[in-house]
């Protein structure tokens, strides 16, 4: 298993370009199954989760090539709607294939995606939404069969603004007969990107970015080329790392409008932020101030995907901060590792009380999930001494070679890879 070796204490500086959004590319790759033919998707990041999604599409009969940040996919040869169990288990986001495969083939078989370190990750809202459109669902052993001779538009209200359920329903409803009005929908920028992609294929979707999305079903969709939006969570992770190391950095190819909640918190912590339409500049000189209370909740509130990262900054701040996690029930797995690095954090149910300390100390720590792993990298960059982050594959799911991003900003870190060592390429 790869490790990241980090020598902390260097203020990050320089300029980096932010890669495309994992959480936009995954549903859009799934949505490409709604049309038959060749498409080119640009700004697709090179991540483990993208590799798994492309692997699933290939197993379903598609031809897909990922060169640089461009995916060329031909969905015309797809001949199966049975998502392979081995790949389904690797990535929960395979659930995004239900809507498109059901709409195209009238039947889809997936496996329970299972939870991961951050919580149960139920899919009841996905299944209820597809049933409302006319699907019959049968669960046996670990398999979930979903069939519909015809999908019919209807009014659907989500009990919770689930990102994935919103996306699955949008994709299935795009080819349904009639109109679907989806209320209490998720409002994330990735939902808007999916709407724009569906409409580029000839769908008729409006309202993404608000809590009510209207999808007027059409008979067929056409293949199209498309460019994925920047990854707001990767941008946010980089900003927090710069703040924690008291550096000065410029991010390009990002979208400040997708990061309003984070930029507000960073300014409250005393960090200087400048933003234009696709550039963010951050200047952090002194010790950050504590932020009295941060509550994660669906967009446009503070994102749960930046909770573990911002906790590192708060752990170094001057004062007491409260972090409340309301989206996932198990997303504090990074706290124990931060405490081992000298942080003063106590957890009570879904609240974390963070009393800032002057410095953190390097240690050998383990990534438990994608964003917790990114938080440990930030902690290592800010800490005094050497940090080794293990189980780096979690981080590679959502960051394209995170060590290169921070090396470009002067961070003293490198990857140790047993596989490369064996080949004497390390
Ligand atoms: C998406 O996951 C993102 N993943 C997650 O990012 C992100 O944390 C999450 O949205 C919230 O913003 C992708 O887009 C690939 P949800 P998703 O459905 O769709 C409960 C990352 O780090 N729920 O909005 O799975 C669920 O248990 C990942 O990039 C149900 O109860 O999130 C959770 O508590 C992590 N029933 C809450 O809703 C359902 O049917 C939010 O889940 C579905 C969800």
Task: Supply the key terms.
single chain; about 425 residues; alpha+beta; UDP-n-acetylglucosamine1-carboxyvinyl-transferase, Chain; 2 domains; four-stranded mixed β-sheet; 15 helices; about 30% helix; binds ligand EPZ; transferase; pyruvate; Enolpyruvate_Tfrase_sf
Strand order of the largest sheet: 21-22-1-23
Work out the helicity level. 25-40%
Q: State the separation between the terminal residues, measured CA to CA.
A: 14 Å
Shape: globular
Could you tell me the strand content as a percent range? 15-25%
Structural class comes to alpha+beta
Low-confidence stretches: none
Tell me the count of domains.
Answer: 2
Pathway: Cell wall biogenesis; peptidoglycan biosynthesis
Main location: cytoplasm
Binding site for UDP-N-acetyl-alpha-D-glucosamine: 92, 305, 327
Binding site for phosphoenolpyruvate: 22-23
